[in-house]
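Newbie here. three chains, one complex. Structure please?
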Amino acid sequence: MKRYFLKRFLSIIITLIGLSVIVFMVSRVAPGDPAKLAAGPDATEEMVQIIQKEFRLDDPLPVQYISYMRGLLRGDFGRSIRTRHQVQEDIRLFLPATFELVFFSIAFAIAFGILFGILSAVYKDTWIDHGARVFSVTGVAVPMFWLGIMLQLLLAAKFHLLPIGGRLDTMILPPTTITRFFLMDSLITGNWVVFKNALSHIFLPAFVLSFPALASITRINRAEMLEVLHKDFILNERAQGISERLIIAKYALKNALIPTLTMIGLRYGWMLGGTILVETVFDWPGIGNYAVGAAVYSDFQPVMAVTIILGLNFMIANLFVDLGYGVLDPRVRYE
Amino acid sequence: MGPILEIKNLRIEFKTFEGVSHVLDGVDLTLGRGDTLGLVGETGCGKSITAKAILRLLPVPPARVISGEILFEGEDLLKKSEEEMKGVRGRRIAMVFQDPMTFLNPVFTIEEQLADVILAHGEGDGSGPNSRREKITRRQAVERGIELLREVKIPQPELRIKSHPHEFSGGMRQRVLIAMALSRSPQILIADEPTTALDVTIQAQVLKLLGDLVQRHGHSVLLISHDLGVVAKVCKRIAVMYAGSIVENCSTVQLFKRPLHPYTRGLLNSILVFSKREGEAQGIKGMIPDLIHPPSGCRFHPRCSEVMEVCEEEKPLFSEIEGDHWVGCHLYKRG
Amino acid sequence: MNSINSIWARWRVERKSQIRGFKLIVYTMSRSPLSVIGFSFVLIFFVIALIGPILITYPQDVRGAVHMDQKFKPPSSLHPFGTDEVGRDIYSRVIMGTRISLQIGLLIIFVAMGIGVPVGIIAGYLGGWVNEVLMRITDIFLSVPGLLLALAIVGALGPGIKNAMLALSIVWWPGYVRLVQGKTLSLREESFVEAAKSIGASKFRIIFGHILPNCTSPIIIKASMDMGMAILFAANLGFIGVGAQPPIPEWGAMISTGRNYLMNHWWMATFPGLAILITVLGFNLLGDGLRDVLDPQSRI
């Protein structure tokens, strides 16, 4: 077991290094003089020279890469041209918002995806099933940002059911900083007003972000449940008198979850990418929004940093998925 | 007291995309109390379907019971509700399946599966239908499971019960299935090709085990197989099935000494010749019929060496020709 | 005339089994209503993209024209989708957007296949360290969410439709490598490959004559589903502002502009979005239908 962990860990490190090389190469491919860009539009020739020296932009690429990696290991991602802060500070500021959003979305997608998948399979060919199938096919095709805008228009602007954007109303102060997750912190400190407010704000972005994942998970869970329910061991369990409810919720489900887990991992990745859309639409102060702002501005350091951080997050998520297989399926444990 | 199980004129059809398949064409079968009855026939003759029909395990949209009764202790199982059937399955009539590889749930331990079977309906170990219903704890169910594994001669049952199906050999898995079926001391044990997927030497072991258990606990047994040799070892009576009906039913001794139906004779010819080590293997000419467009009259008539005109027109009555020797053939008149 | 007939007859005889296979595909797919819907949507999409200029009512609005007196008109018989902030007919722009989306999608998929498929076959067939290295590199690209990588690349190269297409091609090729490599690995062990080797077939011939033809089914299925996704991703980038730039009538960019006026002029963002939805849905359904026919075992 430990050996497996070690192997995977090593694998992640190597992949991460590879990713940093790619990202670094991409950044150096950018047209224009990086020093001039970093210095800003109204820099003098001297200032550009200074920046070139300071950031060693004269050195050959491999040397630049080494110093870049050194910086990464220290947690130094450089400086953002746009915000003028250290990127690592900006990220510390914005990261919790993104993770709170992503966490809610994926939890929502998993919980309801599995549930709808089961219901759809059990009530096959009824209206429940037809509805779920239509949803699961269209849900993946809907452009996330468009869905967000439309829902914003309908629910927030026209009917005032939910807020338009942001994490909290402007008048409300964020809760005491413990985890930096507004919902957690307000619950822990018993700050009911802030909790309700934060909840109403996270609802729509999380729903939109989870939409394609919810659709995919529903779809595959349904297909897997149907497949498993026809298997011989289910026939045996029925013949031995085990209740249908137990068969569905325990014996069939565990088998169906194995491929569903693969889809969950895949969709989590797409969800991480989707944050750049959803955060933009809902003015959510997360690193997705931050990266978009930087990219549009040709401010590359933040984009690099966000790519690496979310890449690492995705790799770790995949590790969890692989561990999940081991938990669910005893046959893989002995490899 | 009467027979414990009586199937009367069971007719079942199956809707397939090529048409309606008339799989059971009036099956008559009687299992006496404490008897061991073998049901023999080629693949596709309907033996498995008959077995599943008894426990109402056939999927009802494609399958349809057209007519007939299945009387268990005088009550028609076909008329019972699903709830009532749950009380029968595994509890009063239990089934042991073939090919244990696919009939055990791969992602759960034997302990888990056995315990859930024992706990189904929350009853105690009971000894026949007269024991009182008592709820037992999971702990107790597991204890009982270990006992059962010991009874089916699985070594170190306390340890092995925690294993998963893929950690067992084929023969051991078959024993687990037997243990499961016998766990609540059913009155009737139906074994559907219990040794077909096993090596010959293991076959012998499992059959002996079955024989011992049946003798010790006094179950009534319906053993289904395409292998006459297997059935002959365990059963006192044999019923021969062809294309959806029973063609001959008599004691094992009588079957081998004085087979009456041409099909039975054909079956015996194709195996007995080997023991004589002379002559050629005699097959039965022709192929098993297409059940969507079955032959008229007696379904065996196209392949019968002693066919008469009436065989094509009328289906023969299944009647008692000699002492407790039943045949369905125009060659014989009730005597 | 006779010679043409006999050539046609000969072709039909030679290709008998393939014609039959094709007929089977058509038959099976026509049984599934969703596949038929998907196929129809895709067909409509292609037709509109091809004959676009005939269908539009205000060709000058597609790129540059400005009619401030016509701005913000709601949907009407003259302007079925309304007009935008500078008075352009949205219907015409959405129609021409179809053509743009088609170009984007096709380019991305073909470049991705053009790189991914050969690399995949080479990796799968040669095995050993070549396989290790190539798959490692592929894994690196797949380790980061696609949209993020695309954002990074476009962020570096600068906004614009060409860079967006390049970025998305880079995001897409690894998927084909994985698919083809896996298939090649399993095909390599098949007996017909062994047989070919034993009669002295060159690696080249084995790859092109045996392995590649057997890969076509999964590739076609993937390409069909990817078309929709590629168009969606391009729209995502367009929306953020790093893809197609206004005044190009790319659907994502149109929605981005429309967003600013959403409250009072809902039509600007709604119709391009519907266009995306229908297009992507069509390709997805088509891909599903093809998969059910060509490769019923797989589910993901």
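Moderator note: The two ends of chain A are 10 Å apart (CA to CA). The mean pLDDT of chain A is 86. Thread marked as resolved.
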